[in-house]
Every structure is written in C-alpha cells, then in structure tokens.
C-alpha cells in the first residue's frame, strides 16, 4: 500500500527517482492507485482555481506606492535611505490628499518642512535596524521580538531632541515606519507597554499614540 | 539586477503576497495591514535577500514571521480571533453564485477552515508552487512536518468538497 504522503510527494515531483519508479510500476497494475492520484490532481486543480479567486481584488494602491517610493533605486545617498525618502513622498502625498485640489507645490513645501526631522528620524531608524539581529527568529525561540507593539505620530514641528527624549522616556525603539500615515512603529518591552503608551500620550511632542496589538479590542 | 527591475518584481508579487496574507489572517483589513508590514520590513532588509534565491519565498517568510509575532502577542494578551471572520473574505456575501463559482467557494471555505499551519502549507506548496524544502524554510519546520501537514490538509479539503456541496453551503448560512 502506497501512503498518501508518498503519493503526494510523487504528485509534487518530490518523490525521488526510486520511489517514482515504484509508484509508476504499481500504477500500471493498480487502477485504484491511479484513481487516488487522479483525485489528488483534481483536488489540487480545484484548490488552485479557488485560491486564484483571491487574486481578483486589486492590491490597495497605498501598498503599491509604498514599494514604488521606497524601493532601492531611490536611496542614492545615506540621508535618503528608504525610510525618510518614503516618508517624504508619503508626507507630500498625504498633504495633497488632505488638501484636496491644492497645487502640488503646496504638498512639497509642506513636505520640505519635515525634511530636518526626516533626516534625524531616518538615522534613528537605520541605527535601530542595525542593532536588530538576527533577521528572523525560529518559531520556538523565546521573545522578545522586534515586532512593533506601538505606533506613534509626532507633531510636525517636533525638534529632534524632543523626539529623542520622548522615545528614551518611554523606553521605546523605532523599529519601523514612517508609514504612509506618517506613523512610526515602536517597540517597547511587553511588560512596560501600557506605561510607555501612557507616557507617549502625555507627551506634548506626540500627536497620537496607539497600541498595535489591540486593533480588534474596543477601547 | 537593476533597482527598477526589483521594484517591478515586488509590485508584481503583491497580489500573491496579499493572497497568502488572506490565507493567514482570513480577514481583508488585517490581510492588507500584514501585506503592508511585510513590504515595509522587506524594503528595509533587501540587503539580506540573495539574488539567486526566490524573492517570493523570502517575502512569504517575512510575512509568516510577522504574523506569528502578531498572533503570539494577541494570544498572550488573550485577544480572541474575531468570530465569523470567514464572512469577511471577498466574495462571501450570500449572493447567488453559479455552480462552478460555488464549487470554488466551497473549496476555499474548506481550505480556510483548516488549522492555520495546514492552511499555510497548502497555500505555499499547492497554490504558490514552492518545493517542500522551500516551504519548510518559510515555516521554519522540518520537511517531514511539511509533508504530514500537507497530507492532512489535502485530505480534509477533499473530504469536504466531494461531499454534498448544497448541504455544506446550507450548514454555513445562518
């Protein structure tokens, strides 16, 4: 009797030469085995067609724009690595969106005001990225992970020093962002998350601070 | 590789990344957030992608790890998965569906009811065409585990879809 797993490995081209020969020899004389294989094949065709229906909906444009604006071709100089360059574009985009039909230069002028902060924030992002190794941790390995658990939006006129002090005061590291909504993704130790959140919310430099892992729970 | 070419490759991958994200999250809004987080992380780590390896596998792995982190965080805080989450998938809205379409719907529903680890294996191997070794690398499990999960997943879906689809459908509609 050929096991389901062996038959599937054959179907998937993973059986190896010896097992392949054995299965083909058995199939020549065993119609039931052929029927099992055909059932598996038609099941797979069905699954592929079913999952293809998930491709029907377009990918949200903001994600496409994220790739287009932050892709590697757009980081010629250290100060314009992905984060800040992306944010600059995203900031301009969001300005244009929120100001409706305002001329494009308005958005760029506003974005330019962010530039200083961007460079500082960009340096932070890069530094924290450099700290962060290894890239992946195994399924069973222990936390803490570098996954962001807070998101914060700073007030646009925040000086770099205030930003730094705010983050240090909350014990937070920037691990991602800025997102297209100008939010930074922060990571704080899980135990201190609520305290950090309260500290951020109380800070004058912070326009908004939200936990990232309670999206579904009503506040 | 030219930078613009890599950008185009990532953009071309987005629909499949979103599909895998839907498979993991079973929730559209959450799926889009996960795709975005995956793209953001991938873009900051392009240096660690080896040009001679599969870009899709590499990005699936980033997505899988982000999802594990997120579900682990939710679990440790006691957040339960939203009830009725399947209903949020695109297309499940009670419209009259033609038979062929309904067959696909039934298949997708059956796949989405599988435990998460089986859904992921099924999606990576049967749908996305990864090898057993590549799927094992994405999921960080041994190849033998991939094989047994794949076997259970295929058999479970096939049991459900060869049953009476009308009965299945009725049992799902409240």
Question: How would you explain this protein's 3D organization?
Answer:
Chain A is an alpha+beta fold. In chain A, 54% of the residues lie in helices and 9% in strands. Chain A has 8 helices and 4 strands, in the order ααααααβαββαβ. Chain A has a 4-stranded antiparallel beta sheet with strand order 2-3-1-4. In chain A, a hairpin with a 7-residue loop joins strand 2 and strand 3. In chain A, helix 2 packs across helix 3 and helix 7 runs antiparallel to helix 8. Chain A is elongated. Chain A starts with a helix and ends in an 8-residue tail after the last strand. The C terminus of chain A is likely disordered. Chain B is globular. Chain B starts with a helix and ends with a helix. The longest helix of chain B has 23 residues. Chain B has 8 helices and no strands. In chain B, helix 4 packs across helix 7. By secondary structure, chain B is mainly alpha-helical. Helix content of chain B is 71%, strand content 0%. Chain B has 2 domains: 87 residues, RNA polymerase sigma factor, region 2, helix turn helix motif (Rna Polymerase Sigma Factor, Chain: A, Orthogonal Bundle); 86 residues, Arc Repressor Mutant, subunit A (Orthogonal Bundle), CATH 1.10.10.
């Amino acid at each position: 009797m050929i096991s389901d797993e062996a038959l599937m490995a054959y179907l998937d081209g993973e059986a190896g030469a010896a097992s392949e020969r054995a299965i083909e020899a058995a199939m020549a004389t065993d119609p039931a085995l052929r029927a099992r294989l055909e059932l598996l094949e038609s099941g797979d065709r069905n699954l592929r067609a079913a999952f293809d229906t998930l491709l029907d909906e377009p990918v949200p444009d903001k994600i496409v724009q994220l790739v287009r604006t932050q892709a590697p071709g757009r980081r010629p100089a250290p100060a314009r690595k992905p984060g800040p360059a992306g944010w600059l574009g995203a900031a301009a985009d969001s300005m244009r969106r929120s100001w409706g039909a305002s001329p494009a230069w308005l958005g760029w002028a506003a974005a330019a005001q962010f530039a200083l902060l961007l460079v500082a924030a960009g340096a932070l992002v890069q530094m924290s990225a450099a700290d962060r190794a290894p890239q992946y941790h195994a399924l069973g390995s222990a936390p803490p992970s570098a996954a962001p658990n807070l998101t914060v939006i700073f007030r646009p006129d925040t000086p770099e020093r205030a930003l730094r002090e705010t983050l240090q005061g909350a014990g937070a590291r920037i691990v991602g962002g800025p997102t297209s909504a100008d939010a930074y993704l922060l990571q704080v130790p899980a135990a201190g998350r609520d305290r950090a959140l309260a500290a951020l919310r109380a800070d004058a430099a912070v326009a908004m601070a939200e936990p990232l892992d309670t999206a579904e729970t009503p506040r | 590789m030219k930078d613009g070419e890599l950008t185009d490759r990532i953009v071309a991958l987005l629909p499949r990344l979103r599909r895998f994200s839907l498979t993991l999250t079973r929730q559209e809004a959450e799926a889009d957030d996960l795709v975005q987080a995956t793209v953001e992380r991938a873009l900051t780590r392009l240096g660690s992608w080896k040009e001679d390896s599969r870009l899709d596998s590499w990005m699936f792995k980033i997505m899988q790890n982000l999802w594990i982190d997120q579900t682990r965080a939710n679990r440790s805080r006691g957040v339960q998965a939203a009830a009725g989450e399947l209903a949020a998938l695109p297309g499940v809205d009670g419209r009259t569906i033609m038979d062929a379409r309904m067959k696909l719907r039934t298949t997708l529903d059956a796949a989405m009811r599988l435990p998460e680890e089986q859904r992921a294996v099924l999606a990576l191997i049967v749908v996305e065409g990864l090898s057993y070794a590549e799927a094992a690398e994405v999921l960080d499990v041994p190849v033998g585990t991939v094989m047994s999960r794949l076997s259970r997943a295929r058999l479970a879906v096939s049991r459900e879809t060869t049953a009476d689809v009308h009965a299945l459908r009725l049992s799902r509609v409240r």
